[in-house]
Amino acid sequence: MKPFSFSFIHDVWQHHALPYYQQLAEREQRLVAWAALLVPLMVLIFGVMLPLNDARMAKEKSLRTLQQQAQQAEQWTQEILKQGVKKPRGSIMTVVDQQARAQKVRPFITSLRPQLGGDKARLWIQMKQAPYTESVKFYQALASQGIQIVQIKWQKTPILGVVNVQAVVQ
């Protein structure tokens, strides 16, 4: 196979395009010349620059959303710390289930399992594809009921504002 050569383009220009171009009226030649300048410019603007700008704006919006969520989480953390620790009323499983229903995250809880060992009753909670804000409110509500979060792991998902959460509470 022969390597690509620009002589092919030169031949096409010399034998096909140039004779056709020279047959055009002067006004049409100017129109073709302007089109030859504007078409690549339009491809650059509409095919490269605008999509890049749109992507940048989407990333900035995503960043602002994440910053607001982090600020809200910090605010909730401070509120929880101010409230102090309460004793939970009822079994840990009951309190977690009641708060999950109240905060509307119960459909996202895929597993509630008691943890063995230790001097206090522990519960392992797994949530999949849960809205971030509602998940934070749920754990805030648990803390306000005297449930202590021993360990928590947040995992992002491809969907903005949706997370997977694994937590151990007591």
Q: Can you tell me the CATH superfamily of the largest domain? A: Ribosomal protein S6/Translation elongation factor EF1B
> Ends: how far apart?
72 Å
What's the total count of β strands?
4
Name the average pLDDT: 89
**Count of individual domains:** 2
Give Rg in angstroms.
Answer: 31 Å
* Uncertain residue segments: none
What descriptors fit this protein?
about 170 residues; rod-shaped; about 20% strand; alpha+beta; four-stranded antiparallel β-sheet
Produce the secondary structure layout.
Layout: H1 7-23, H2 26-83, H3 92-102, E1 109-115, E2 122-131, H4 132-144, E3 149-156, E4 162-169
Antiparallel strand pairs: 1-2, 2-4, 3-4
Describe what you observe in this structure:
- This protein is of the alpha+beta class.
- It folds into two domains: 1-84, no CATH class; 85-169, Alpha-Beta Plaits.
- Helix content is 58%, strand content 19%.
- It contains four helices and four strands, in the order αααββαββ.
- It has helices at 7-23, 26-83, 92-102, 132-144; strands spanning 109-115, 122-131, 149-156, 162-169.
- A four-stranded antiparallel beta sheet has the order 1-2-4-3.
- Helix 2 (26-83) packs parallel to helix 4.
- It starts with 6 loop residues before the first helix and ends with a strand.
- The mean pLDDT is 89.
